[in-house]
Amino acid sequence: MAAFVGALKKLSICLILWLNTPPFLQGGSDYYEFKYPFIKRASSFWASSSSFSSSNTDEASYDYIIVGGGTAGCPLAATLSQNFSVLVLERGGVPFSNVNVSFLSNFHIALADTSPTSASQPFVSTDGVINARARVLGGGTCINAGFYTRANSGFIRRVGWDERLVNESYPWVEKQIIHQPKLAQWQGAFKDSLLDVGVSPYNGFTYDHIHGTKVGGTLFDRFGRRHTAAELLASVNPKMLTVLVYATVQKVLFDQTGRRPRAMGVIFKDENGNQHQAFLTNNRRSEVILSCGAIGTPQMLMLSGIGPKAELDKLNISMVLRNEFVGKGMADNPMNSVFVPTNRPVEQSLIQTVGITKMGVYIESSSGFGQSQDSIRCHHGILSAEIGQLSTIPPKQRTPEAIQAFIKRKRDLPHEAFKGGFILEKIARPISTGHLNLVNTNIDDNPSVTFNYFHHPHDLQQCVDGIRMAAKVIQSKHFTNFTRCDKPTVEKLLNMSVKANINFIPKHTNDTKSLEQFCKDTVITIWHYHGGCHVGKVVDPDLKVLGTNRLRIVDGSTFNESPGTNPQGTVLMMGRYMGVKILRRRLGKAAHV
């Protein structure tokens, strides 16, 4: 009888989950094709490149062509389509029927998938840190840890945005896809520990960026389902929008007969490798808008002939406009982690609670992404070599012997060790910057990226301060009571972290003695890279590309810093903000936005 009741309970839970699951996950792709009829495969584009000429008619053209249907591109398209014809060209597929994207429990699997059609495309910076970029409609909102927060007010002032419009644009996003998390027990213990070590006051649940400890929003609903930027397309004018997936833009086309290069359209290839061209209308206010992200947008500009002379010359790219700043000032917020052991099982949790300190570092935490035997050998969630998080050894030094030694060391770790989690320390505004360079002219290949982690001594000192605080958090009575572990020494914590911090980097004997060395040897990424197309150097304050007409950039490549503890909220807002701004300038009150 007890077994029957247990089975009945499980069946009831499954039924409740199924009934609360969106139809697009119940029934595959049919639902999204019904709800989003404007989303089509690139091969369906009606005209081949041979059908176009420079004298294209308005019938075959668009008011706006958005390159990249990601975190900024989707809200931008949804907004512009209220009044104008919009074409979105996204190189990846749709997220709706991809269970690895849709569920929190599969977060690490989506990042571990390195197949050519994966939602995540790995890349390795020249620093040796493995990273990832999105390749899916919805962009980074499909593969990230889901945490949502607004930018600090200082960031908004520094970029010169209209604060009133900013405060209208954030809620537009939040009402559609953001949720208040059900706080995991781990995150509750983390919250109490932060307060215990002085990261105060407690600001409760809030989207605002305020010093102290807070619980932020999340893309995951109470059933652990992810809601992405792609769902913002539900608010479009469907008659005015076309979204092509598996549409890889290769370059922007320009009319160079005038005083300034004038964007005319783009060349893109479909999923079968066939090339197409799409054009803007002849209206002077029509635009190609690049929303390819901090890696893709500088790369796209250079492949289109806008960039440093030496960079274009080395690959025989015809120069449209010389700009030595394209690809410069690349930055990534370095992150380091401290492993937290536990003698009790913990549920999976991604970032829900954050400590916003006054010393320029943010403290976050994740737990429970290593509880199965398969996970021990394959994945460690947010801190996994397999998902492209943890290697700081240059590729040339990744010998087969080093890799095998790493695999053995990983398998020898006790299963209980991965029932715990990690305290993450991220530098808010790194001074160290790097650069992006083309490797070849193939848009499918990653460019070469250098971030120069800890190149500036101030960044390194901030990391040291952050690690010290992370250790204090773990030593707090709230965490030791929760984990049922004795209060560990800092050296023991660092020793466990070096071993659990799975990468191929040769360990130094003083890793647990020197916090500076620990920071350098265990640096990872949290995917908050930005820059490469800065305001005043590549774009003007309205994000129009300097020296051109009808070309604009709307994404994080224009940022000098990563906004807030996690940037996705501000990038989502940015898409809406710029869309409204463009409509109001073009139509005034008639825009009705």
UniProtKB/TrEMBL annotation:
Signal sequence range: 1-27
Under SUPFAM superfamilies, the record lists: FAD-linked reductases, C-terminal domain, FAD/NAD(P)-binding domain
Q: Where does FAD bind?
A: 90-91, 136, 249, 527-528, 556, 567-568
Report disulfide bridges, numbered on this chain. Answer: 463-519
Instruction: Give the keywords, sorted.
Output: Disulfide bond, FAD, Flavoprotein, Signal
Molecular function (GO) terms for this protein are: flavin adenine dinucleotide binding; oxidoreductase activity, acting on CH-OH group of donors
- Which residue numbers delimit the Glucose-methanol-choline oxidoreductase N-terminal domain? 293-307
Query: Which cofactor does the UniProt annotation name?
Result: FAD
- Per its UniProt record, what InterPro entries does this chain match? FAD/NAD-bd_sf, GMC_Oxidoreductase-Related, GMC_OxRdtase, GMC_OxRdtase_N, GMC_OxRtase_C
Query: Which family does the similarity line name?
Result: Belongs to the GMC oxidoreductase family.
Q: What is this protein called?
A: Glucose-methanol-choline oxidoreductase N-terminal domain-containing protein
